[in-house]
Amino acid sequence: MNVRRVLAGLLTILPLAVLLLVVPRLPPPERVPTHWSGSRPDGWADGGELLVGVMTVVVLCALAAAALAVLQRVVPQAWSRWALTAAAAVGWGALLVYAVTVWRTGVDGPDDVGPAWALLAVLGALVAGLAGYAVHGRRLPSLAELRERVPERARTQPLRGRAVRPVEPWATEVASATMKVIGWGLAAVFTITAGVVAVSGESLVMVALVVIVGGGAALLAVAWSAVLLRVDEDGLEVRSRVLPVRVARVPAEDVVGVEVLDLDPMRWGGIGLRALPERTAYIVDGGPGIVVWKRDGRRLALQVTEGDAAARAGARTLLQAAGQRLGTGSVTSS
Question: Nearest-CA neighbor of 173 among 270, 242, 250, 258?
Fold first, then answer.
């Protein structure tokens, strides 16, 4: 049993117990604010309806946590971690919406509750999500267990003595028209959406949520639309050629193995950037690419559009850098 996974599930179920304790002390009032225009509310709902809605959300989050606990041998831990993080954030956020709204309605009256209190509930939800993510953690496989998964010819071998020589840096550029279209398409869609939401009189919180979510997704896609793959003595680095950011990095000491495979989109999740439970792939149109086995048990697959020879040169360079780093670590530990 994964104890940390169980604790994250308990953290997600806890809002239901807290809500049952809070309701007798903060019973739902006749009217609660649900929408603000400026600093004053201009939309209200029945307090009982708010309680029913919050109770439904909290119960669903608890049921999701229970289902993940039952299916923990089936659901990959990467999926479980994100699912419990989302459920914890939503569950605690719903609880805080009820508690803060009812409390301030009782203190200020339904016509004078400011929007800042709603933001407090959102902040609490983010903190709960981060706590769930940290508590769940990720169990690393043992090095022996991980090396058994890596094909023998692709395993990192320690290099010492005469085998140690300067690592000649290797680099190649890769561009994806798919990611470019997705990125700029998302930017256009969410810009229009944010404008419509703002014009329709929705709260600034909703506008900010649209901008943050849409902008983040668009920037991620644009950053990966054209990248530079570089291998040197420190490991593998992937930098965006569109934005001045590094989008991925695998230090040499975290490389357990490297191989060159024909990256079939049908087997790796499709074209573009694909994050799956135990692997991440960046595929332009299918073809030879470098597959890096990482210390955390995940694989990173990157297509090399210059062809098989270029991919094998990059793989050899990364294995050399990782082998020398492993050899240095072995000597130091002895």
Answer: 242
Return d(Cα 78, Cα 85) in angstroms, integer.
11
CA geometry: angle 76, 258, 277, nearest 5 deg: 15
Average pLDDT of the chain to the nearest whole number: 88
Distance CA 269, CA 271 (A): 7
pLDDT tens column, 2-53: 788 888 889 999 999 999 999 999 998 888 887 777 677 777 888 888 899 8
Beta bridge pairs of residue 248: 238
**What is the Cα–Cα distance from 223 to 246, expressed in whole angstroms?**
9
Cβ atoms 255, 297 nearer than 8 A: no
Map tokens 């339904």 to a residue.
110
Over the range 249-273, which residues count as b (16 or more CB within 10 Å of their CB) and which as e?
Answer: ebebbbbbbbbbbebebeebbebbb
Q: What is the CATH number of domain 145-174+227-333?
A: 2.30.29
Let me know if domain 3-136 sits in CATH 1.10.3470: no
